[in-house]
Specification:
The structure is a homodimer.
Chain A lengths: L6 H15 L8 H8 L3 H14 L2 E4 L5 E4 L8 H8 L24 H17 L6 H9 L2
Antiparallel strand pairs in A: 1-2
The first copy, chain A, binds a DNA duplex (30 and 30 nucleotides) through α3.
DNA sequence: TTTTAATCAGACAAAAATATCTGATTTTTT
DNA sequence: AAAAAATCAGATATTTTTGTCTGATTAAAA
């Protein structure tokens, strides 16, 4: 079990935080990201490709090619990455797996979980990723 | 993606909440639970078997057999069911998937996520499942 | 005592998630 | 012009999760 996001999404979050922590406009290859973050190389490529398709990052082909953010880190929030990869469905589904969980047909923990879920959403959308630069660099330096 | 727990765990939570909402000591079959909760029949059996092994419920074999709680609902918390099925690892893992996430090597959202996680844990262990009886009955009546 | 209806164990199957491979294309460097 | 190093697309493989099947056993009811 992952905690909340799929592996793909976890890796995507890590990769974009990593890119945001680099010098601006620095292009880095899938291999570099794979090495720095210990993500399987080919899987890294796939995820970066899909993030390119979603418009969060952009790619440069050929020798000296690679990836970089397509949007300034001051305009990207963690939730944007989650949305691009896993979607936001989990923020709208019942934690106990009941169908039609809603204020009208609440599950036993509907209210309590709803509050937690909203806080999680807020946390992921409260700050843009440029704010995480230093923390990301510290974290990656020990990986 | 499930929200937080595996399907197995979601079904297990539903099943035990259901049993706790029945008359005390009432034995119900896997088939009944499967029908009431719309859980695949054979999968229901498997999950109930594993919950039996973990000691939360007990089984009676043969005709008129089935399952019932092995512990009084006033002594079972949601987190006990989660622990029996999914384990508690997700409450100790990094939400961004970084390794060695700890106060010494925190991920970018370590503090914030830690607080949310603790609240989720508290929510799941704050009340015993006898408290959910009425809400469960209401919910199941519309399934 | 036979039939019926249940658990149980273990194998099996299908689907989804995760990971890898292959080869084509692109672009810079030599 | 050729070599090198990258993305990219699509197929394939592996692993995990989810779900199903079969047959043995158990125990009550007919």
């Amino acid at each position: 079990m992952t905690v909340l996001f799929s592996k793909k999404c976890e890796y995507g979050l890590q990769a974009i935080l990593f890119m945001a922590a680099l010098e601006e406009d620095r292009i880095c290859s899938a291999e570099e990201i794979s090495n720095k973050l210990n993500i399987p190389k080919e899987f890294t490529s796939k995820i970066l490709q899909s993030l390119t398709a979603s418009g969060l990052i952009e790619s440069k082909k050929g020798k000296t090619g690679g990836f970089r953010l397509a949007i300034h880190p001051s305009k990207i929030k963690l939730i944007d990455i989650v949305e691009a990869i896993d979607g936001l469905e989990s923020f709208n589904s019942c934690v106990l797996g009941f169908s039609n969980c809603s204020p009208k047909n609440p599950c036993p923990v509907h209210k309590e979980w709803g509050e937690l879920r909203n806080k999680a959403y807020e946390m992921l959308s409260s700050e843009t990723i440029d704010k995480f630069k230093e923390k990301t660099l510290n974290k990656i330096s020990v990986l």
